[in-house]
Amino acid sequence: MVLRSGRQTLGRAPRNDFVLNDAEVSKLHVELVVTGEKAVLRDLGSSNGTFVNGESITERELKAGDRVAIGCSEFKYEVELESRRSTVTIVAMSPIDKTQVLAASQIESLRPAIEISDQAALRRSYERVRTAFDAVGMLIETTDIQLLCRRILEVAFNLVKAETGAVMLFDAERELVPWATRGAAGEEVDGIQISRTIVDQVIREQSAVLASDALSDSRWSSAESVVLSGVRSLMCVPLLSAHNVYGLLHVGNSKTVAAFSQSDLELMTGIGTGAGVALSNAFMNHRLVEEARTRESLGRFLSPVLVDQVLQDRVDMKRGGEEREVTVMFADIRGFTSLTERSRAQDVVSLLNEYFDQMVEIIFQHGGALDKYIGDAIMAVWGTPVSQPDDGLRALAAACEMQQVLQSLNAMREDRNEEPIAIGIGLASGVCVSGAIGARRRMEYTVIGDAVNLASRFAGIAKAGEVLCDKPTFERAGKPKASESLPLAQVKGKHKPVPVFRVSRI
C-alpha cells in the first residue's frame, strides 16, 4: 500500500482508503496521518487492537522497519527515496499463521444456496458477495476519477488472488491509457503488459475474459504481451454502463495456474458493471464541475445568453483569431487620477466595484461582451463572439444608457457624501481580429484592430457625459436624431482628421 500525504484510514468497511476483508479487523480500525516524512499510526478504538513490533499501541510514529499487525495481517513500514523525494510506503508481508488462504480451486460458483451442501462454502460465497455489494456502493459514491480507479483495484485485490492489476480508461481519442496500477503489496507498478488480443475481445464483445493458463491457452498463447509478461492466470473485465465501455479492469497472476475461478469472474463482472456506473457518474460530475468553472469564467465578460451559446458549442471562441465586423466601446472616468490622490485606496476600490457592476450589466443587457478593464476604463465589444445585425445600434444604446444610469449612481453617492464621477465614452466600428490571443499559459479573448484604437481615442477626447462615435457606427445605428456632427477630429494614429458624431440618446 502506498501512503499519500494527509489522512487515510484502514479497516474492513468499504469506505476506508485501504480495505482488509478480515473478520478480525474492525470496520474502521486505524488511521495513518502522513506529514512530510513523518507517518503517525493511530488505533481508532478497534476491537482486537493494533500492534507495532508486538506491542499494543493507541498511537505511534512509525520508523523504517516497524512491523504492524492488524487483524490477521502483518505489514512492514518502509520509506523509499526516489528522485530526492520521500515516498512513504507500507509493503505487505506474508500473512501470519492464523490467516486462512482460500485456493482458487476450492471456490465454488455462485450457485443457489440449496445446491451448496458445504455450509462453510456457502458462508464464504455470501461474504464475498456482501463485500462486493458494499464495495460497489462505495465506488458509486466516489466522484474523483483518480481515486475511483485506485479503489476499483483495491476492491479487486480484496476479492481475488491477483499479483498485478491495472485500470485502463479511454481518452478523448479512444485510446486506452492507464489510470491506476497495483502490485500484490498495494504499490504502484510499472511494466504491466496486457494482450491486445484480449483487450480487443473484451471491448468488442463487451464481455469478460478468464484465462486459467494464458501461456498454454490456444486463444492467447500467440499474443506477444502474454508471453513477455509470463502471465499464467488473468481476468479482463469491461468497465461498462448502459452499453458504454469506459475502459477495462485487468488482473493477473504469473505464478499460479487457475488462480482465478468462474465465481471470481462473475464477481469481477459485477464489479466492472458497478465501476462503470461509478465512472459514468464521476465523468458527469467532472463535466458539471468544468462547466460551472467555464460558466463562471465566461460570465465575467459575456452575458448569460452568450455563455449558454458558447457552452452549447454554438459559438467557436477560436485561438489565434478570425476577422469579424465589430463595434468597440471604451468608457473612461474623467479625472480619475486626481480622484485617487484625494481618496483612500479602499474607497477607490469600492467606487470601481460599484461603478463596474452597473455599467457591465448594461453592456450585457444590450448584447455586448466585456473585453477587459484597463484601470478605471471599460472596454466592451459587439459582434463577437456572437454577431447581430444591429450591433452598432445596441452599442450606442448601451453607451447612452450608461450615461443616464451614472446620474442615478451619482445621486446615491451624493447622499453618502461621496464625490460624483463623470465618464466619457467612445465607439468605433470596423473589421478586427477576434479570438483567444496570448501565451498558452494565459489566454485572453479580445479584439485587435483599427476600430479598437479609434474607440479608445474618442473616449480620450470625449468630455464628461459625452458619447462620441465614428461614422460607420453612426450609420449602423440608423443615424440617431438626437445627435450632431462635430468638426473633424485629429486623433493619434490617424494621418487625416476623422468624422466624429456626438449622440445624446437613442
Structure description:
This protein has 506 residues and is an alpha+beta fold. The protein folds into three domains: 72 residues, Tumour Suppressor Smad4 (Sandwich), CATH 2.60.200; 190 residues, 2-Layer Sandwich (Beta-Lactamase); 188 residues, Alpha-Beta Plaits (2-Layer Sandwich). The chain is 33% helix and 30% strand. Strands 16, 17, 18, 19, 20, 21, 22 and 23 form an eight-stranded mixed beta sheet that branches. A five-stranded mixed beta sheet has the order 2-1-3-4-7. A hairpin with a 2-residue loop joins strand 8 and strand 9. Helix 1 runs antiparallel to helix 2 and helix 8 runs antiparallel to helix 9. The longest helix is centred in the middle third of the chain and has 37 residues. It starts with 5 loop residues before the first strand and ends with a strand. About 8% of the residues have low confidence.
Question: Averaging pLDDT over every residue, what do you get?
Answer: 81
Poorly predicted runs are 81-109, 220-229
Number of strands: 23
Domain module tally: 3
Name of the top-level CATH class of the largest domain: Alpha Beta
Distinct helical segment count: 11
Can you tell me the overall shape? elongated
CATH homologous superfamily heading of the largest domain: GAF domain
Beta-strand fraction estimate: 25-35%
CATH topology label of the largest domain: Beta-Lactamase
Instruction: Tell me which CATH architecture of the largest domain applies here.
Output: 2-Layer Sandwich
Cα(first) to Cα(last) distance is: 71 Å
- What structural class results from the helix and strand content? alpha+beta
Q: Major sheet, described briefly?
A: 8 strands, mixed
Gyration radius (Cα, Å) is 34 Å
**Helix percent band:** 25-40%
